Amino acid sequence: KEALFGKKKNSLNSFENTTILAIGSGKGGVGKSTVTANLAITLANMGYKVGLIDADILGYSIPQIMGIKGVRPVAIGEQAILPIETHGVKIMSMGNLVEEDEALIWRGPVLSGVLEQFMNEVYWGELDFLLLDLPPGTGDIPLSIMQEVKDARFLIVTTPQITAKGVAKRLGIMAQKTNTDIIGVIENMSYFQCDKCGEKHYIFGSGEGEKLSRELDVSFLGEIPLLKEIREGSDKGISPVVDLNSPVGKIYKAIGEKII
Ligand code: ADP
């Protein structure tokens, strides 16, 4: 594979000892960005050095979820910028470079160019993990990463809905066709646990995430329930996984342990 970064002569980063995790989904709205942000915080809380690139350049939502809307990255010299750091995670998102509500109307090659700049011209320092929050589906950006980012590993987020699983499977097959490693599947919004009766209600169906992992012959990394505190956390920019001993924190920690 050609390197989209690293081997480049004037790249600021080598990512030699960095595990690159590209997090994708079949459809939008399955909670991919929320899972990516919370997973980044979890790995940071577990003691790892973590970077997060919002590779959903047009549909960015990481600044909102991480509580850094309106924060601008600092430039060092004329050639480089520093990522924004919060919750122990270094972050780069288009949302921190443009005005709020500005519509970006760019085609695939331009988007890949932005991603390349985020990798080469942002000074990341030493990282154990670099998470890439991909746009949903099997478009240009996931394909560029599969073909050009050396050693990128894919993680697929889906919900129990059959429609979400169907498209997620196509992403998985695309990864396999390009000889890209898939680290596993996370099922998000798996069930709702009633506060009153304690029973788990499988609102969107059940078992589809696990089924997908079997069909792709990859690991099933876990189920994340539908929880009000997760939704509120991503709306307010306060993650519920900051405490790894909280109920949500424990679920994420178990997933984090399967990834490291
Ligand atoms: P995607 O990146 O797949 O488009 P988002 O991460 O933006 O999805 O999530 C979509 C919405 O669902 C957000 O409002 C988010 O807070 C909410 N959400 C995601 N995961 C959960 C969950 N496990 N429980 C409750 N709400 C969730």
From TrEMBL:
Coiled coil: none annotated. Keywords: ATP-binding, Hydrolase, Iron, Iron-sulfur, Metal-binding, Nucleotide-binding. ATP binds at G26, K27, G28, G29, V30, G31, K32, S33. GO terms for biological process: iron-sulfur cluster assembly. GO terms for molecular function: 4 iron, 4 sulfur cluster binding; ATP binding; ATP hydrolysis activity; ATP-dependent FeS chaperone activity; metal ion binding. Transmembrane segments: none annotated. Signal peptide: none annotated. It comes from the Bacteria. Binds and transfers iron-sulfur (Fe-S) clusters to target apoproteins. Can hydrolyze ATP. In the N-terminal section; belongs to the MIP18 family. Homodimer. This is Iron-sulfur cluster carrier protein. It comes from Sporanaerobacter acetigenes DSM 13106.
